[in-house]
Amino acid sequence: MISIPDLRIILVDDNEIDLLLHEKLITLQQISRTVLSFSSANKALEFLSSNISLHRIPPTIILLDIQMPEMDGFEFLQAFDSYPSKIKSQCHIVMVSSSLDYGDINRTNANPLVVKLLKKPLLAKDLKETVGEIFKDF
Amino acid sequence: MKENRIRILYIDDEVHNLNAFRASFRRSYEIYTASSAQEGKLLLKSIDVHIIIADQKMPVSTGVDFFSEIKDQLPDPIRILLTGYTDVEDIIEAINKGHIFSYVKKPWDEYELHNTISNAFEMYQARKQLKEKITELEKINDELNRFIYSTSHDLRSPLMSVLGIINLARLDNSVKDPNGYVDMIESCILKLDGFIQKIIEYYRNSRLDVEYEKIDFDSLLQECIAAFKPQNTAIEFQLNIDQPVDFKGDTFRISVILNNLISNAVKYQKPDEANPKVNLTVKVEPHKATIWIEDNGIGILSEHLNNIFKMFFRSKNNNKPGSGIGLYIVKEALNKIGGTINVESKYGEGTQFEITIPNRNDFDS
């Protein structure tokens, strides 16, 4: 159990089954009490921009898929980069993809906004470790 | 302008030559004339010609100068040079500077010039067809690569979802499965994924540029062994590395080659063998590396040895069919980096692969 009481995890994936899988995995493993699922990058960005009115942004992990129609993971990152630091500083982005493409992998690793790239299928162990690494100073 | 007629531009400063040319050839070809290189250039801006005939001796700009000037903008028309002098220097200059197809003496012989024009047009068409074929093939090749990429990608992502579901089912114990069906599903999915990964490997091998970097065979092979050891813990691996000099090569392709060959050595062991072995020997020399991968597995039937590197070939006499693509990828990857492969095998006794890979280190010194 990771003890960040107000931690929330935002899932961005066009694949409904993967959204469900990741949500269940997080709940079962008690990684976070709040899980918000978005089936498109646009919807997630809209939600994040509405957060600006919040008094305090809770610590957030975004699990972001790479291949999505309309706006893909990289385009999401590009748009998110221009968000106010009040939001950005609380959000930790983890890419999740089944991609074996070197171009995708290199682009992900090169992006300063991305903490890590996790492979699908997402394993409970990997996700816990990553969350632990992100909040090791808490 | 009729499409099927040969279009010719003839440039000569002597107007009566232009008229004579028109009179002799206008029935056979579509003829444009110009009395100077300047005028010729202007004409070429509006008309696509197949053949350009130019007189060598003209004031301001000679025929050769004209040809070499338009060479870059108009590479397609076939060029014929006309001159009253048989000056060897002129001929040499013409051929070297202006990409000239033929050289015709003045005054021209009508029959000879007809022949030259018809040959030139054949050349024009052959070049054009070749260009079209190249463009077409490049397009097909590109589409095929993209097809392979998106297929393997789109096939893989639902498979990963299935694996995710299996993992989740195990985690929350929600599926009662006394007969182990879920495990069977998982092993089938992994097999299919292995095949998809091979396709991606093939795709990357054919598309990625070759890149040379330093390779330490000891750590590379230790990694391979660590990856395959769990598949059959009974196998004794022997690693024998002689690397007195640095080796530079393409890491991606070399690991693809080694992974496929070691994977086979591990997979095709005899089920009843008491001491299954895989020996890996590397010898690095300044100009090449030689690697031997030797096993005491089931071996390959001698009549199959010639076919094992063919795409989708599978040896019949084994109960562990592979995808038939592994050794094909090995061969393709070796082709890309200039390596060679030899195989010796005795059915029932074992197989030895010998590969040589050029050492790209010598370019440094």
Automatic annotation (TrEMBL), chain A:
Alphabetically ordered keywords of this record: Phosphoprotein
Any GO BP: phosphorelay signal transduction system
Keyword Phosphoprotein: yes
Keyword Phosphoprotein: yes
Post-translational modification 4-aspartylphosphate, affected residues: 65
Residues annotated as domain Response regulatory: 8-135
Organism superkingdom: Bacteria
InterPro entries: CheY-like_superfamily (IPR011006), Sig_transdc_resp-reg_receiver (IPR001789), TCS_response_regulator (IPR052893)
Pfam name, any one: Response_reg
Transmembrane segments: none
Name listed for the protein in its UniProt record: Response regulator receiver domain-containing protein
Organism: Chitinophaga japonensis (Flexibacter japonensis)
TrEMBL record, chain B:
Top-level class of the enzyme under EC nomenclature: transferase
4-aspartylphosphate carried by residues: 55
Recorded superkingdom: Bacteria
Residues in Response regulatory domain copies: 7-121
Any GO molecular function: phosphorelay sensor kinase activity
Endpoints of the signal sequence: none
Enzyme Commission number(s): 2.7.13.3
Record field: catalytic activity: ATP + protein L-histidine = ADP + protein N-phospho-L-histidine
Residues that span the membrane, as ranges: none
Histidine kinase domain ranges (all copies): 150-361
Protein's UniProt keywords contain Methyltransferase: no
Keywords: Kinase, Phosphoprotein, Transferase
InterPro entries linked: CheY-like_superfamily (IPR011006), HATPase_C_sf (IPR036890), HATPase_dom (IPR003594), His_kinase_dom (IPR005467), HisK_dim/P_dom (IPR003661), HisK_dim/P_sf (IPR036097), Sig_transdc_His_kin-like_C (IPR004358), Sig_transdc_resp-reg_receiver (IPR001789)
Name of the protein in its database record: histidine kinase
